[in-house]
Amino acid sequence: MKKLWGVAVLLVGVLAGLGALSASLAVKPVPMHHFETALAQVHPWGTAQQDPSQTFPTSLHATREGKRTWYSKENGGFETLTNIPIEKVGCLSCHPGTYADGSKVDPATYKPGCQDCHAQPGDKVKQETCLKCHRRQALEIANYSDVHREKKLECMSCHTSREMHGDGKAYKSWLEPGAMDVTCEKCHTKLEANVSHVVHEKTVHCTSCHSQSVVSCYNCHFESEVVAGIKRPYGVMRDFVFLLKRQGTNKVHAGSMQPLVHGGKSFVAVAPYRAHTITKQGRGCTECHNNAAIQEYAKTGKITVSKWDGSKLVFTKGIIPIPPDWKTALQLDFVDYTGDPAKPETDPTKWVFLKSGADLMQMLYAEPLTKEQIQKLSR
Q1: Domains in the chain: how many in total?
Q2: Comparing C-alpha atoms, which of 298, 290, 293, 295 is closest to residue 376?
Q3: Given 202, 263, 306, 334, which is the most exposed site by the fewest CB atoms within 10 A?
Q4: Cα gap 141→155, rounded to integer Å
């Protein structure tokens, strides 16, 4: 018995020694870069995720519900002027022509699915695949720098699987609360101590100061879309940012717009927007306070957004605040295309002046700035 106890003690000692040795030889984890640490917090990949095959049918990628939400008569959308149901236009089955693996899409049978983004089930989605559909973001990349891209971050560095595949709930727009996971604050948990942050942190969203610009196709000719599925804008408006209030946040947020024309009628939709044109350094005070748009509004009660000069549309650049009386204050000119709407080539000489002012204006998920906020901007 004594011998057995001796053997047992010896074995315990050996095992303890081996444990200490293995611990000393273990490879120490390499410290993560702070971006990797932040991204790991944003994307807790270790947690159980819902099955995309179950959640995708109700995702925004599958339903295209954001388009229906903005276009519908019920929400004061462009359908009010066109009287054409969205199902007759093709917006809900829009596609870039090829699947992720390069094979061609048959428009007659196309339905949104995994193959739109994935060449193989579960593979990493390439950024160029995202940009085939998200053309506005492609324009941003082509024309502006961005601090996140400079750090080699791509679309899926910030946007989550739940955003792409859905969570089983049907959202009406990416702007609807709960639809998106990504926020500036998920990574930027502590703001740099400076005067701008002290003054604006609680009332102004990051995008208002750190977005270089938003971009928008201006004056899309809807007849071309209806007749031949051709997207034909007059041009791209850039180097501007709207300032408005995003609903549910009580903060001044960057915004953009989408102007369209159809049958001699003009329309513009206004919404909050997050441009991928972010700078580390925020705006200077005078870019917003008492700028040209504010001075024009103080003198005339109007803010020029676009103006026909007799031969072309001229766009206002810089910060454009959206005042309480925005529907009468914002001055927009519209043009019409007199060329063949069925031809894919656009003849620039066929654009002619249509009218000043929008026949219908829509704003969702946002509110205009208050009178008090406009007064503060006037200082």
Answers
A1: 1
A2: 290
A3: 202
A4: 12
Collapsed DSSP state (helix, strand, coil) of residue 288: coil
Residue 146 lies in a domain: yes
Cβ atoms of residues 313 and 307 within 8 Å = yes
CA atoms of 262 and 225, how far apart (whole Å): 10
List the one residue out of 322, 337, 338, 341 whose CA is nearest residue 271. 322
In this structure, what token pair is assigned to residue 250?
């009580």
Residues in the chain, how many? 379
Q: What angle do CA 183, 189, 190 make, to 5 degrees?
A: 135
Domain that holds residue 144: 50-93+114-183+201-377
Q: Distances in Å between the alpha carbon of 206 and those of 214, 257, 286? A: 14, 19, 17
Q: Do the domain assignments include residue 261?
A: yes
Read off the DSSP letter of residue 345. S
**292 within some domain:** yes
Q: What is the DSSP letter of 88?
A: G
pLDDT beneath 50: ranges in the chain: 1-40, 42-48
In a domain, 147, yes or no: yes
3 state DSSP class of 277: coil
Nearest alpha-carbon partner for 211 in 144, 152, 163: 144
